[in-house]
Design a protein that fits this description.
The protein is an alpha+beta fold. 34% of the residues lie in helices and 19% in strands. Helix 20 packs across helix 22, helix 21 packs parallel to helix 23 and helix 22 runs antiparallel to helix 23.
């Protein structure tokens, strides 16, 4: 019956499942072994003629143990990968390890174990844990970024970009993490602190390697509009980070030029409309004018040194207290040459944004207002909403819309009109130009650490910077390093850096920095999609799988990893290495897994398992001492609210864990872990096992309502999974399971049970395979075709008609859809509920809403 819903057979079945009870531990091991032996999920390298789909979760850092966040992330991707296989696609669903990074070096220092040994042991442990989930992973493509085979190809790509002019080396202000002893990119500075160590970041000048991401700023920003498969919030975060700004670049002339100083300096502003509200000018601590003044002023030199102890990012300057140094100089206002503005060196002005100089308009910029209040500078409103023209500025700057006031020829203009008017005058008079700038800075990729990809260049006193010859790649890390002293370990190694120059043969030195680990994750998907022995990737195969159809990971990577991966892909596209420019067609950012938290009276964290509720109070179970409940927070070892996935799988089986991860919350929101939730998931797995046996019953008769529900469930779950709304798919599966259990024996009940088993197979694959084999089906349910709903059965032929008397519901009737008004009225008059309410009276008026209600007005 219903041909579209049938499932074909594959290779021979597997014997051994118990017939009377489902034992998760046995089923998990059995089917994971079968999938591995048959290489069920190994993706073909050569095209087969079927559609190709790549599903990818952001690969993990091998920290030692997986956590429930990993479980949720990989379960989501796994469901989609399995559904695509059942829908007839070739599917690539790989997994690897983001294996370089500072934690491995810290482990070497703290535990006396080499970073590679620590990393490899963690990979082995986490791989074993992930395999217990029954993931449909192609393990043949597994990689680790610390493999020389991987990072050697990364070095080759670095040289490709270097040759193409997309890599540069220069002295620059950098964010220095004094704890991790390394440089941080601006994106790695969070509220003025290092993203890993949490230490206050310092500003230093170092010679660094940069990838020229700013060359791609325009196209990175413009292409965001084409990423319809990305969350709007992520696209907005990237747009704001790229920070495209249209404004005015103009020149401030010094009022009293001094010998040895420039006569003025350039300023960029996005608010030229507020120039009449300027009360001061300021330059960055690293501005050439500040440096020239500091040579003659020790107090200014000391202030600049203090500024260097703040990070170079916008976030660092925004959170720092706004401070300045009055140079004693003044500049001429370009729109009113009779006005003079005092010139400061300010700690909140960035040298690498715009020109490193600003004018301050306190009334309409909070940063400028804070500064002006501190130094008692004038605050003049020049933009006002209707009725606020004379209103004073309080503690908050006004940044809203309005018309210009106190601004001469600009008075009465709207903000945008005033901007255009100022730019037009500046260009006509020759003191400024309309221009576009970006907040985005070039990507500094030099890191002063050992456990990373060596930068493949050699520094020769005679030849300068010389790329390592391609036939000498990979440049591998020395194994015999010491971790008992501070500093750059590669620089301190007695022999590793000393090599002859490839050009002149004279003594030279390797670069002793390593690449930022975000470089490693900026192209790993290419290696997954097209592994190659003699090239970073096989272009033809990579292009057959990419872009990634669905990429899944945390929102915390919206700027760092995702922006860098987009840039790297575009860079390789520009130099002709690949034929596409965007790496990820679809992006989904899942929520975190949270768990309740508790502390004891002294403030120490308690494991949730160590507390219990007694009456209205939480107490420590062992002692009865009070326990203080906190909010549910992201699972973390420090707060002792971590749940070990292995322990839960041991107790309930992999399918129960997978089902719970999909069921309780929309996947983009946080999921609160609960023991009751996992117990409920386990009960459903065992219910499914009992329901599945009904798929072979040889009952006669029909149950049209159940048949329709089965087809609606197929249609609904298919759509839910397409939208990654797994919790809705779970709810539909529960609804169908409930209906099956309530229905009597029929061929339609058998059909519905079989349909349910196919629909939940990607979510609970072990019990599905076990039940499939018990039903006598040949092959694996993982290879069975995905069910397809009959469109004719998605529309109900019957409707429930509400019968009202004087507007009050008195009865309901089930009637064929589409009855005419006369027949609906006849049936409504004859209904028992209506007759009782009317008590023999004839209605004066009848209101009929077809397929919905009849109201008899008496």
């Amino acid at each position: 019956m219903d041909a579209p819903m049938t499932s074909g057979s594959a290779a021979a079945g597997t014997s051994g499942p118990a017939a009377d009870a489902f034992v998760p531990a046995e089923a998990d091991a059995r089917w994971q072994r079968v999938w591995e032996e048959r290489q069920t999920f190994r993706a073909p390298h050569a095209p087969s003629g079927r559609p190709r789909t790549m599903v990818l979760e952001m690969f993990p850092y091998p920290s030692g143990r997986i956590h429930m966040g990993h479980v949720r992330n990989y379960t989501m991707g796994d469901v989609l990968a399995r559904v695509r296989r059942m829908q007839g696609h070739d599917v690539l669903h790989p997994l690897g390890w983001d294996a370089f990074g500072l934690p491995a070096e810290n482990a070497a220092i703290e535990r006396g174990v080499h970073p590679e040994q620590w990393t490899r042991a963690n990979i082995a442990a986490m791989r074993a844990q992930l395999k217990r989930l029954g993931l449909a992973i192609d393990w043949s493509r597994e990689l680790a970024t610390c493999d020389p085979d991987y990072y050697g190809h990364e070095q080759a790509l670095f040289l490709d970009l270097l040759e193409a002019g997309l890599v540069t080396r220069r002295e620059a202000d950098v964010n220095w993490d004094p704890v991790d002893q390394t440089v941080l990119a601006n994106e790695q500075v969070i509220d003025g602190r290092g993203w890993r160590s949490g230490a206050p970041v310092e500003r230093r000048k170092l010679t660094q390697w940069f990838l020229k991401i700013t060359d791609f700023a325009d196209e990175l920003e413009a292409a965001l509009a084409t990423l319809s498969g990305w969350p709007e919030k992520v696209r907005l975060m990237q747009e704001n980070w790229i920070g495209k700004s249209r404004g005015l670049q103009f020149r401030f002339d010094l009022a009293d030029p001094r010998a040895g100083l420039p006569s003025g300096f350039d300023v960029f502003t996005t608010r030229p409309d507020t120039l009449f509200g300027a009360s001061f000018a300021a330059v960055a601590a690293d501005h050439p004018l500040a440096a020239a003044l500091a040579r003659e002023d020790p107090a200014l030199a000391a202030f600049i040194a203090e500024c260097r102890r703040t990070g170079t990012s916008a976030a660092a300057t925004e959170t720092a207290e706004k401070r300045g140094f009055d140079t004693g100089l003044a500049v001429i206002h370009p729109l009113d040459p009779t006005r003079r503005l005092p010139l400061f060196v300010a700690n909140f002005v960035l040298m690498d944004y715009g020109t490193g100089a600003i004018f301050g308009c306190p009334a309409h910029d909070q940063r400028d207002l804070d500064f002006a209040r501190r130094y008692m500078l004038p605050v003049v409103r020049v933009v006002a909403a209707p009725g606020d023209e004379a209103a004073p500025i309080g503690d908050e700057a006004y940044a809203g819309p309005g018309r210009l006031v106190n601004s001469g020829f600009l008075d009465g203009l709207e903000v945008e009109e005033a901007k255009a008017a100022v730019i037009a005058r500046a260009e006509a008079e020759g003191w400024g130009t309309g221009t576009t700038v970006y907040r985005l800075r070039d990507w500094g990729v030099s890191r002063q650490r050992y456990w990373g990809t060596p930068i493949p260049v050699i520094h020769c006193p005679a030849c300068g910077v010389v790329p390592v010859p391609r036939d000498q790649l990979p440049v591998t890390l020395p194994a015999d390093v010491r971790f008992d002293r501070p500093g750059k370990l590669l620089d301190l190694h007695p022999s590793w850096k000393h090599v002859p120059c490839p050009r002149c043969g004279q003594p030279a030195e390797r670069d002793t920095d390593t690449l930022d680990t975000f470089v490693d994750s900026s192209w790993y998907f290419l290696r997954f999609a097209g592994p190659s022995g003699d090239a970073p990737f096989d272009r033809a195969e990579a292009e057959s799988w990419l872009p990634v159809a669905q990429y899944i990971g945390g929102i915390e990577h919206a700027i760092l990893h995702l922006l860098y991966a987009r840039f790297f892909t575009r860079a390789l596209h520009r130099i002709g290495r690949i034929g596409f420019a965007e790496p990820f067609a679809g992006l989904f950012t899942q929520g975190m897994v949270t768990h309740e938290t508790f502390r004891d009276a002294s403030g120490q964290w308690l494991e949730p398992a160590a507390v219990e509720r007694r009456g209205d109070q939480w107490v420590v179970a062992a002692t009865g001492a009070p326990a203080i409940p906190g909010r549910a927070e992201k699972m973390s070892k420090s707060k002792k609210n971590v749940v070990d996935p292995d322990a839960i799988i041991d107790r309930f089986g992999a399918d129960a864990v997978r089902w719970f991860m999909l069921s309780d919350s929309p996947p983009e929101r946080d999921l609160a872990w609960s023991l009751g939730g996992i117990e409920g998931a386990s009960r459903f797995v065992h219910r499914l096992w009992r329901i599945a046996r009904l798929a072979t019953e040889a009952a006669e008769g029909e149950d049209m309502a159940l048949r329709r529900l089965a087809h609606r469930t197929v249609h609904g779950i298919t759509a839910d999974i397409e939208r990654l709304q797994f919790n809705k798919a779970v709810a539909r599966a529960h609804e169908l399971a409930n209906a099956i259990e309530k229905a009597g024996p029929s061929a339609d009940r058998a059909f519905a049970a079989r349909s349910l088993l196919l629909l939940v197979a990607p979510m609970v694959p072990h019990v599905a395979e076990e039940a499939w084999a018990r039903l006598g089906e040949t092959g694996l349910i993982a290879d069975a075709p995905w069910p397809v709903a009959d469109p004719a059965l998605l529309v109900d032929d019957e409707v429930t008609l509400a019968i009202q008397v004087n507007g009050r519901l008195r009865d309901t009737l089930t009637v064929p859809r589409g009855l005419d008004r006369a027949e609906l009225e006849r049936r409504a008059r004859a209904s028992p509920g209506a007759q009782r309410a009317l008590a023999g009276r004839a209605p004066r008026k009848v209101v009929v809403v077809p397929d919905r209600l009849v109201n008899l007005v008496g």
